[in-house]
Amino acid sequence: xxxxxxxxxxxxxxxxxxxxxxxxxxxxxxxxxxxxxxxxxxxxxxxxxxxxxxxxxxxxxxxxxxxxxxxxxxxxxxxxxxxxxxxxxxxxxxxxxxxxxxxxxxxxxxxxxxxxxxxxxxxxxxxxxxxxxxxxxxxxxxxxxxxxxxxxxxxxxxxxxxxxxxxxxxxxxxxxxxxxxxxxxxxxxxxxxxxxxxxxxxxxxxxxxxxxxxxxxxxxxxxxxxxxxxxxxxxxxxxxxxxxxxxxxxxxxxxxxxxxxxxxxxxxxxxxxxxxxxxxxxxxxxxxxxxxxxxxxxxxxxxxxxxxxxxxxxxxxxxxxxxxxxxxxxxxxxxxxxxxxxxxxxxxxxxxxxxxxxxxxxxxxxxxxxxxxxxxxxxxxxxxxxxxxxxxxxxxxxxxxxxxxxxxxxxxxxxxxxxxxxxxxxxxxxxxxxxxxxxxxxxxxxxxxxxxxxxxxxxxxxxxxxxxxxxxxxxxxxxxxxxxxxxxxxxxxxxxxxxxxxxxxxxxxxxxxxxxxxxxxxxxxxxxxxxxxxxxxxxxxxxxxxxxxxxxxxxxxxxxxxxxxxxxxxxxxxxxxxxxxxxxxxxxxxxxxxxxxxxxxxxxxxxxxxxxxxxxxxxxxxxxxxxxxxxxxxxxxxxxxxxxxxxxxxxxxxxxxxxxxxxxxxxxxxxxxxxxxxxxxxxxxxxx
Length: 688
Hints:
Structural class: mainly beta
Distance between the termini: 51 Å
Oligomer: single chain
Shape: elongated
Mean pLDDT: 83
Strand content: 35-45%
Radius of gyration: 32 Å
Low-confidence stretches: 1-9, 14-38
Number of strands: 37
């Protein structure tokens, strides 16, 4: 109880410190004002209004209208002729300027995520009611940020060759990105940073698996959704204050919404065996292993439009994937003569083990492709084996074939979004997404009864509200929650019924083993809650932005090995002799005390930022970001850790360390994972 109170007190102190820091920063920048008005889901449209002599025009009325929904906002230029519309949803807009004595001007412009679109307006003197329309849309231009931003439009997303529909694939075409080919988690690196340092967000919400600190990638791994994406932005070196949590690339996705016009699409892709060559290894067997069956079907369809024109809009997207792909596995099995000799020897020496050996050799003999197995001549595996009825010098014990096991993989998503205009100052949207994927995690070359199949469903809900307090102040608030399941288990109960324990072969015993039952079941369930707020305020030559991002993760960890007892053949030089005598090299028992470890953690990021337009060609940016990541806790007090630092452990300081019990060095039953974590991580940023 006292430990929990201490934790609560620490959290309260941390919250107070964060609040005081933000207030201090706020006070500082009010004295010397400034701003940055982008966010993870929105962009800005900015510009300067000038007369024919290129002098700035102050107090000009500037109106922006969404060409998709018809919504409008109005502001006026300041003394520098500058205007800004903040936290705009990505899309097509029209900027109109009117001022007494000048002809009204209308210009099309586009807003992009995390970027300033500059739309400068030049007025003409006129005495008639003539409106000048400027053709050609103004594209986003980064003028206030040292970040390397790469924006991808909806059209570019659709045109990217992307078999399997993996939405993370497009980030690999951004500057500084390269495919991760060094192993470990994460599918690409940026500027040399680890692949686990990239942050993916969808409509501002973290789209990550916190268990491995990665974004899921690859077909049937919860990555469909490209048909729902309106825009992607990859920030390779995030300097702006709203970016935090991780130091690698920030990949932001914004989803489509309905407009005043009905729109939709339908797409279908197919790829199969007739369109692909045979595997090189298959072509180099004798006889040639035939080209295995493969078949891939993928589809997408969407529709969006108005429910109530100029007020309520909808968008629905569904995508699916069903495919069978071959896995080419070089598989080694016993020869018939060797198998018969081993069975006779085991019956004589270890008759209790005979049923297990009979099942083993029956499975080897009945494996798909075993009939085409080629003998491995002069095999070194059995040269030194002493086995009655088998001459290791003249007979061969092993044969090999190319196995091509297959399994059906599938994924299906359904996403819909409702946008609602609550009034001239408020816009709301809600989005729900359901994703059901079935992933063949590991396939057995011996029998499909030992395939490991993973069901990976996920559910996601987002709510966002944008409130315009006035022509210079806008706020965006997002609340989101998601639940993700990744449970890995063998697809057939026959795997458990065939053997009461796992059978693993390695080293001196070359025969292919079965998917290790001790690895399954395993996996995790993850629930995430997140609240995000961004406030943008334009004041004179300054633009301010403040925000916070709080997230909580509840992880049910089922990732345990040795869930089943295991029998190991091989490893040592005498492993083959032990195998033929009915003896294993090693036995392991299952000793898990629990089938679930419930872990909880949270993180909080807050920032204040100021952009000061000192001159027309000089802007200064000052930002301070504060991060706090909690110490993970186990709800059942299951953590263990050293009782002290390494140099003061009892076993380290003892003259007889071998007689120091392990529980003198290790304390169990811990609520928190670590002795402590950073109270605050400060990240000041300055640019010009």
